[in-house]
Write a structure and sequence with these properties.
Number of strands: 18
Distance between the termini: 18 Å
Strand order of the largest sheet: 3-2-4-5-6
Radius of gyration: 25 Å
Length: 592
């Protein structure tokens, strides 16, 4: 993949100084806030507080869903929660199950099998649930596109309530049932994950029953887990939910979650969005990817510490297996990319690829190639595909444009799934590539958006700790990128069996220690060569020692002194910078 351009958005000195003065933040933090559109002190103050919350009644139609569900609760009728096999689907199922059971409901659950059922609600499942006595079917994390399936359920005598957060059908058709969906129902935070939607529904149910909805706060650990795992934007209410939920997760009393943290090597006192996203969520996801998603559900619901530990060990073992399977598929897919050469989009297919793992591989390849990637697992005459996209390319819109080549598809901008006949893979690949060429144009180079131009003397513990105010980081609120515009590298030493490298970075007489992960033992710019480099700055805790750590993001040999001047640009009499914006003004590249 080619090196990214550095985009440095305009950052008027007057705005920076006002934030420093009114909010008491440092210059680098003020730069970050201004460059992220938070130059007004009140907007910045609201963001830093991170406590946005909206009432469950802000969903149009919430009352209809509550009335339907409580009617069945009071009558003692059988309710089934239909979820999904990923973290969000498992957690949203658990949230609603726990809430309804505490209200005395007769309720069970159904999680589809990835291999035999596929994604979402299908006719076969509807028929099975009707046969076993389900009278109310409540979907979570699915069914906003299941118009025919919901109609079939109603024809079989079941009432249905649909809760979801995915993109509706392109033709605008919606299931004929009460719907709780943040975008469709006009909720102020349109980007809630399914578990947050289920939590809002649970709150509404409890209030309607005269119960204290704050008692449901003990499930905010699940809301945070799912919000991070589902890669929804960590802004607005999502940001607040994750902040509160991470605190709840640190002190969770759920035996299964505590056991999962233990097998994953996560210290609850140091738990953050990274440990959730890279240690806890993959282990729950692994169950649904390879075997049974209900293992994750049982882990969450069990009250038995011994059973919780057993399931956590099972999930850890399955996750190790998932990594091996993923690596094998990735090698084969990378070989196909090398054979295909440069493309605007890649559609790769293979025999024996596990359909539960191809989405992870597609994500890795999309990041590395900076191209949308779809992987298809072929078996018999039909293939199951999973795709991941990049900033600037709507994958669901791409599949819609190529829909004539597909049996079925669904998802959203960044990720989607599909089914396709074996004989149509090549024509689909050509169609998606042509569509991507039209959308992305000739230049689809990645962009590194710079949040603050800093000096090496500022990269210490004080700033590292101050940056924590901006967390949680993730989609919509990416980690902060700090630019040293006049840096040189020295004393590079390999670490981690040559997979990583540590080094010293110097600039204007100051120096700091840094590390580059996953780049091998060589730095992107030779030692002693003037460079422009971006870093993340973290608080690193290791063996009882706490220190600031610079993590290299990108570096390139410096070709101009223009960027060096940005940090100390003199202001004119009206407070505006005297120099213009850098030439490289490109869209933000932020991978999910």
């Amino acid at each position: 993949m080619q090196a990214p351009h550095f985009e440095i958005p305009e950052c008027p000195n007057a705005d920076v100084e006002r934030l420093k003065r009114e909010l008491g933040v440092s210059g680098p933090i003020a730069q970050v806030l201004v460059r992220r559109g938070l130059g007004e002190p009140e907007r910045a103050r609201v963001f830093l507080a991170g406590n946005e919350e909206h009432p469950s009644g802000a969903f149009a139609g919430m009352g209809d869903a509550v009335a339907s569900i409580l009617g069945h609760v009071r009558a003692g009728r059988q309710i089934t929660i239909h979820g999904d096999y990923d973290v969000d689907g498992v957690c949203s199922t658990a949230v609603l199950l726990r809430a309804l059971r505490r209200l005395g409901a007769s309720v069970d659950s159904y999680l589809p099998d990835r291999a035999s059922d596929g994604y979402g609600l299908n006719i076969r499942t509807v028929e099975r649930l009707a046969a076993r006595g389900t009278q109310l079917l409540v979907t979570v994390d699915c069914a906003i596109t299941a118009v025919e399936e919901v109609a079939a359920a109603r024809a079989l005598g079941m009432e249905v309530v649909v809760t979801d957060h995915h993109t509706p059908r392109a033709d605008g058709a919606l299931p004929q049932a009460p719907i709780v969906h943040p975008a469709i129902c006009g909720y102020p935070c349109r980007d809630l994950c399914a578990t947050a939607v289920a939590h809002k529904l649970a709150q509404a149910l409890w209030r309607a029953m005269g119960r204290d909805a704050s008692e449901l706060d003990d499930d905010l650990d699940l809301v945070a887990l799912a919000t991070i795992a589902d890669v929804v934007p960590l802004l607005g209410e999502n940001r607040a939910l994750v902040r509160r939920g991470l605190c709840a997760l640190q002190s969770t009393t759920k035996p299964g979650l505590r056991a999962l943290m233990a097998v994953a090597g996560v210290d609850s006192d140091k738990l953050n969005e990274r440990s959730v996203g890279f240690a806890l969520a993959p282990r729950i996801n692994a169950a649904g990817r390879l075997y049974r998603a209900d293992a994750g559900l049982e882990l969450i619901l069990t009250e038995d510490p011994v059973r919780g530990a057993q399931i956590a060990e099972e999930l850890d073992r399955v996750n190790r297996e998932r990594r091996k399977v993923e690596l094998g598929i990735r090698f084969e897919a990378e070989a196909q990319i090398a054979a295909l050469g440069e493309r605007a989009a890649y559609v790769l297919a293979g025999e024996g690829w596990h359909p539960g793992v191809i989405g992870i591989v597609a994500s890795r390849l999309a990041e590395n190639q900076h191209r949308p990637v779809v992987l298809i697992a072929l078996e018999g005459e039909v293939g199951k595909g999973s795709g991941r996209s990049i900033e600037g390319f709507d994958l669901l819109a791409g599949l819609t444009a190529c829909g004539g080549h597909l049996l079925r598809y669904g998802g959203h901008r960044a990720a989607a799934g599909l089914e396709i006949e074996r004989g149509r893979v090549e024509e689909f690949a050509a169609a998606l590539c042509a569509h991507a060429e039209r959308v992305l144009g000739a230049d689809a180079a990645p962009v590194e958006r710079v949040d603050a131009v800093v000096g090496c003397d500022e990269l210490g513990m004080e700033l590292a700790e101050e940056l924590r105010m901006l967390a949680p980081y993730g989609n919509g609120n990416p980690g902060v990128s700090l630019l040293l515009a006049d840096a040189t590298f020295a004393d590079a030493r390999p670490m981690g069996e040559g997979k990583h490298v540590r080094f010293t970075v110097k600039s204007h007489g100051a120096c700091a220690r840094g590390v580059a992960f996953g780049r091998g033992s060589q730095l992107p710019v030779a030692e002693g060569i003037p460079a422009e480099a971006t870093f993340a700055l973290e608080v690193n805790e290791w063996k009882g020692i706490t220190e600031p750590r610079l993590v290299l993001r990108h570096a390139r040999a410096r070709t101009s002194a223009a960027i060096v001047e940005l940090r100390q640009t003199p202001a004119t009499s009206d407070g505006e910078p005297s120099s213009g914006q850098p030439d490289e003004e490109l869209a933000l590249f932020a991978l999910p």
